[in-house]
Description:
Elements: E1 2-4, H1 19-25, E2 32-33, H2 46-51, E3 57-60, H3 64-76, E4 82-85, H4 92-98, E5 106-107
Parallel strand pairs: 3-4, 4-5
Antiparallel strand pairs: 1-2, 1-3
Amino acid sequence: xxxxxxxxxxxxxxxxxxxxxxxxxxxxxxxxxxxxxxxxxxxxxxxxxxxxxxxxxxxxxxxxxxxxxxxxxxxxxxxxxxxxxxxxxxxxxxxxxxxxxxxxxxxxxxxxxxxxxxxxxxx
Length: 123
């Protein structure tokens, strides 16, 4: 999980590079980086310590259940930072697990154009 202090969060494209490298390429530097094992049930004290860094975004790249844990931790601390993540924020495990804590999270979505769904123009 990356905690950012930024006035704006530009679109980050990470293809064959790490998320950290993609942020660096856009001159964004996380104030804290945390890694959690799959299946974690709580974040512990780490979010409290990160709150002192001035971070105003929590950028997660995790699967559904872990996203729910992150959202609930931010809510329980009453830490009003924006939670931004990958498309896995749309997983039922994430939404149902976080319940109202998922409200306001932002998810990046990728659209892959295929020849069968190309835009049709009429003369």
